[in-house]
């Protein structure tokens, strides 16, 4: 029996014990000699217990994990928020086609026509390759289609495919909350039953942008394949690091086999090439995610509190058009999905079984929030920056 205690995915204590001699249907309570290591403020603590083979067997080698479980432990005290009044002041320019907020070393621009984050510059570097826009669609899974179209999600939920791209932005307004903070609010109407969608971008002098999205359906509608937002970042930000479930892809109704931890890998290596290209690479219960370059700098997104996240070296349109994996191009940008969640993947049978009701995004009001900020190693470790420094709200 091998065990580890992790604080935000970092091992702080570990050990091994011989497996107890137990017969069938017997039980025994075991006390683990855990050290009392206090988590840092804002850190989460988990106990990971694994039963591994002590010696080679005909069917697996020594060290093979036979069973595992992850148990939450008391975390650290709540991390202190940063007083907005202590931040540097920001400037607001609302005279052009975009509302621009500037602070020390950064600028943020929200387009008047799009109501979307069109630019986020840090130290002269552009972090946004395509605007951050609402997204309600996913490229259909085999289970979404089902044998002989018995699920037929692409047709049933087609209203959500165009809901984001065809939204009508009614207004984009800015208000100064303080010398150190500006809030931009974008109101839009979706073609799906004239539903309403509101996005607020609160920009702070620290360089933090708190994004909040709210949706209210306008009438009877099918379930949502996804509720989230999508953007693109430069291809140089090709490493994805996250604190959440992993390391493999996981979904709302297929996530308990993925432990919460700190993981990292190349975006190229995190996608999953199904025989027929389709939705892939999602990670759930993400506390924070960073896309960084070879020097460790890039863009950090922190859930308030959790996100579902995926990143692809191609666009969603590329993924939907492709019928074979060799038809998937490699773009000079990376698509980043920052979602509340997706409807589950379903598939209790191969005939078209839909996701269970408790894993379905029924058409009802939804809201979620997350924080965006530039990141550079000089600011501290990713864990420290993600855990601390959230503005007072």
Tell me what you see in this structure.
The protein has five helices and 21 strands. It folds into two domains: 2-73, Immunoglobulin-like; 84-387, Beta-galactosidase, Chain A, domain 5 (Distorted Sandwich), CATH 2.70.98. The strands form three sheets. Strands 10, 11, 12, 13, 14, 15, 16, 17, 18, 19, 20 and 21 form a twelve-stranded antiparallel β-sheet that branches. The chain has 393 residues and is mainly beta. A hairpin with a 4-residue loop joins strand 5 and strand 6 (98-103). The model has no long low-confidence stretch (mean pLDDT 96). The protein is globular.
The biggest beta sheet reads: 12 strands, antiparallel
Q: Look at the helices and sheets and give the structural class.
A: mainly beta
- DSSP summary, beta strand count: 21
Q: Which descriptor suits the 3D outline?
A: globular
CATH second-level architecture of the largest domain:
Distorted Sandwich
CATH topology name of the largest domain, in short, is: Beta-galactosidase, Chain A, domain 5
Q: Low-confidence spans: pLDDT under 50, at least 5 residues?
A: none
Tally the helices: what do you get? 5
Radius of gyration: 23 Å
Mean of residue pLDDT?
Answer: 96
Helical residue percent? under 10%
Whole-number count of domains: 2
The CATH class label of the largest domain is Mainly Beta
Distance between the termini: 44 Å
Order of helices and strands: EEEEEEEEEEHHEEEEEEEHEEHEEH
| Percentage of residues in strands | 35-45%
